[in-house]
Amino acid sequence: MKILVTPTSFSRESTPEAWKTLEQFATDIVLNPYGRPLTEKELIRLLEDVDGYIAGVDDVSAEVIAHAPESLKVISRYGVGYDQVDIKACGQRGIIVTNTPEVNAESVADLAFGLMLSAARRIPSADRQTRQGGWPRMTGVELYNKTLGIIGLGAIGKRVARRAKGFSMRVLAYDPWIDTSFCERYQITISSFEEVIACSDFISLHMPLTSETRHIINSDTINKMKDGVILVNTARGGLIDEQAVYNGLRSGKLGGLGLDVFEAEPPGSSLLFEMDNVVVTPHMASSTKEAQNKMGNLAVQNLIDVLTGKDCPYIVNSQYLK
């Protein structure tokens, strides 16, 4: 079996158990030579004669799938999101797409809270200025007793909500498929999207990127927010209109921003980087030893299950398969 592996954090050092299993199964392993997500052309070339593909956040478009070899039977996402994989095109070619849900939820929730705290107290800016010899007087805001709005109460959103309770925060949550029993257990107020936007001091995004959710945070929704609200996004960059968010920060409507994801990755230069109340990280929310091991093990197991004809519970494109 020839297997392509592209995630930059999936390595023999970071995911040793998964690599051992993969090396015992595969006869040929092709690695990502670029150290970053692949373009369409790069991916098409590397997929030649491949049987299975463990995918990072590469652009697996319909064009890529049209040029994929007949041998390709499975694309195993190393992570939960699959918005960059054209799952319909895969299904029409008979290519199964899988993901690794929930295994990185604790790590992403940790970083979401870290970004929230960092933006609220401007920790990176204070650190930078102190290292440069300054002794700045910075006034931040507390999380204690504030209202946190969670947009998307899935595996990650639930864990963010539980962490918020440790800060005595009131939690509002919007999700089209809300878990009412979880909300009752943790005293979370089930709310509409409009209520979350209008009533929250902090907002944390945990939704998938779809045509309906793209730019769900825009100039209109920002205008409906409280003055000084702090926004955190560890989900997908396309959920926010970055120009609108920049304008909101400049006007003071937004009090702070924490981003782990961008519309274009890597983002290169950005107007957002001019602001000292913006905290950014390089799409690293799931980059912990614990999450990487769990994601690696499940991604490899999904790949092997499909290629050996076993049942796989984590197929995401079954509705499109012939």
Question: What does this entry look like structurally?
Answer:
The protein is α/β, with parallel strands linked by helices. It folds into two domains: 2-103 and 287-320, NAD(P)-binding Rossmann-like Domain (Rossmann fold); 105-280, Rossmann fold (3-Layer(aba) Sandwich). 35% of the residues lie in helices and 15% in strands. It has helices at residues 16-25, 40-46, 62-66, 87-92, 105-121, 123-131, 155-165, 180-185, 193-199, 219-223, 242-251, 289-307; strands spanning 2-5, 28-31, 52-55, 74-77, 96-98, 147-151, 170-174, 189-190, 202-205, 229-233, 254-259, 278-280. The strands form two sheets. Strands 8-7-6-9-10-11-12 form a seven-stranded parallel sheet, sandwiched between helices. The protein has a five-stranded parallel sheet with strand order 2-1-3-4-5. β1 (2-5), α1 and β2 (28-31) form a beta-alpha-beta unit. The chain starts with a strand and ends in a 15-residue tail after the last helix. The model has no long low-confidence stretch (mean pLDDT 96).
- Rounded mean pLDDT score: 96
Gyration radius, in Å? 21 Å
Helix content: 25-40%
By secondary-structure content and strand pairing, the structural class works out as alpha/beta
Low-pLDDT residue spans: none
Query: Which overall shape is indicated by the principal axes computed on the Cα atoms?
Result: globular
Strand content: 15-25%
Assign the CATH superfamily of the largest domain. Answer: NAD(P)-binding Rossmann-like Domain
CATH architecture field of the largest domain: 3-Layer(aba) Sandwich
CATH class placement of the largest domain:
Alpha Beta
Largest beta-sheet details: 7 strands, parallel
